[in-house]
Batch of 2 targets.
Target 1
Amino acid sequence: MFGLNLQRSIDLDEQYYSLEDYQSNVPRWCPGCGDNAILASVQRLCRDEQLPPEKTVFVSGIGCSSRFPHYMNTYGFHGLHGRALPIAQGVKIRRPDLQVFVNMGDGDCCSIGTAHWIHAIRYNMDIVAMVHDNEIYGLTKMQVSPTSRQGLKTNTTPTGAYMKALNILTATLGVTNASFVANAAEWIPDLLHDIIREAFHHKGFSFVRIVQRCPHYLPNLYDPLVTDPNKALILTHENGLQISETLTKTYKNQEEHDPSDLNRAREIAQMDDVVPVGILYRNESIECYDTLRKARRVFTAELRKEALEQEFDKFAIDPLVSEAVASEEAS
Ligand SMILES: Cc1ncc(C[n+]2csc(CCOP(=O)(O)OP(=O)(O)O)c2C)c(N)n1
Ligand code: SF4
Ligand SMILES: [Mg+2]
């Protein structure tokens, strides 16, 4: 009789998710680790897009970066080393209504997970994949990675990495059906956020390589890039990133790059004196495997029941056959 009728005063349709709604455990990454900046950007995206936590999934492999799902207050799957992508594809094919994100390390994606990486690009499923590229195996204490630069001293290459580093961007751009390829640097948070937002809005496999600092094992590695803004080549375009005036004052090295220009994207990806920041390539016309499969067969409750019954029928015992067997045994 006294007080508010809460049933009536709270309109559940008007639920607003704040940043805190996406935050979970306190991250256990080292202070200054670039993974913290990536997490903050992704939580901001979820808040801005008002993604319902129960409709959002983060899938990872194994590595420092792969602790990501523990820090998101959404569904999550901390998988196996190198296997984040097939797990995410499995989730998406069965639950197309979910927003699926993948967080992988450079070792996860480009070493043990290489086959999955290549085929995930070709399958072009509607998933956002982020590679936290710190050029090292962080979790296993500083082993060489395919993206480690030549000469880098690590615990498995104490005299320096022998090979030239694998170029993640040119490799991705070279795969059939590549539909969205972007590059970001975690120390430019505004552009990191804008790039992840563009990736989220792309229908298809959105591949974002993020240059990520590992101050614990490779302190100062990225200092020349972080301290000299001209080492970042900002890619701007009306169909890509639009950079604010404030950022332009700092990041003057810009190129207007049309993300539909694959040849120029490949040239930019090959630059090794600057870090391109922006959308290298976007093609909305490539078909998605999840859409193709959906068009062929809609899994209604009826169809599921029918399929289950067909399976059970394989184990059914025909009464005529069992009678014949019984009388044969008796004679
Ligand atoms: C099948 C398998 N092989 C090897 C390992 C050991 N292992 C765990 S994480 C990792 C590399 C992590 O490096 P990266 O993927 O770059 O992630 P980071 O820690 O740098 O974020 C390795 C080799 C494992 N857990 N499982
Ligand atoms: S070891 Fe490197 S990558 Fe791992 S949490 Fe620490 S700073 Fe980050
Ligand atoms: Mg790594």
Note: The chain has two domains: 14-294, 297-330.
Target 2
Amino acid sequence: MNAFIPPFCPWKGCSEHHLSSSKHPYQAYLPWGSYPTKAFGRVPRFRCTSCGRTFSVQSFSLDYYAKRVVDYQDVSRRLSSCESLRAIGRNLGLSCDSVSNRISRASRQAIAAESRLAASRHPDEDLAADGFESFCVSQFFPNNIHLLVGQGSQFVYASNHVTLRRKGRMTKTQKRRRAELDERFRPTPRGLERGFSRIATEALRLLSDSSRASLQLWTDEKLEYRRALEGRPVFASLEAAGRFRHRRVSSRAARTRANPLYPVNYFDRELRKDLHEHVRETVCFGRNVNHQSERLVLYLFGHNYGKPFRIAGERRSHAEVAGYDTGAIGAELKRIWTRRSFLSLEELPEDQRDIWLRLRRTPLKEGKQYLPKYAAA
Ligand SMILES: [Zn+2]
């Protein structure tokens, strides 16, 4: 603990906060005593001589403000092995709120690590995208989780969550109930198209990062997908130049490995069996859209960087198969569960930023969702 050297000032308004690698190492601080804690022993403090504010070793720890040491990797593995939050709590001797708090912290770490790793990617594959159907709060609030998956690697490049209005066959009582709920919550109009437009943005971003001159995006025949793509001015010119091609296949086509949507179909199956809230007829369904999104982020991170591509055969992770640098992945995995990531130091896609800041709307919940101050730093 004593040998700890602060890498930068943790206060985001300070000139010593954004220290790029080219800038001088952080030296504008003084030791400023220490304080005792039950969980972490004596914690050294420092004072920044540039902004005059104090901080401690804990300011750089993922356990900032936490009162108990919990194994984040263990929580993440349990979550992704179909354990419910209550079961994780029981097994680790934690309350449900503590489990949820650790998952939120871990998900922000995963978002930051993913964005840093994406900065040096050079994908060399076509893409498939589709919506995974689930719900949050109640079956009256179905949602669509769009997924953008690498055709060869089954790496999930992006996801997006939209709440939809319940449709389909309903009894008279259910219709009355839906009418009551309509008064209290209305999903964003054209949600499917708007949600997919973010997936389209990510697909186009992948083209610019790609080592190929052109790529294909496979989807089913939903009109919303086409409209979302056509809504982006750059799409038409890329398509005309033969650099980006939108290809469609019927959603009724056999779900075999020969189906171009196989990567998303495969991932749907994994998600359905591994995350308890998405299991059919579960009683452990999500109650909050932001927390549901955080859990998905953590699951995706485990799928992309932790799981081997195939149980028998190819043992590299999905990320390695997608061409992500093995050394860079190793470096991120070494720090992910210890060194806290700061939002102010990350460049995140819009969707990931929304999840980090808990900006998504949960049906029937009024007002903004609480986010601890330290998480927004
Ligand atoms: Zn400072």
Note: The longest helix spans residues 96-118.
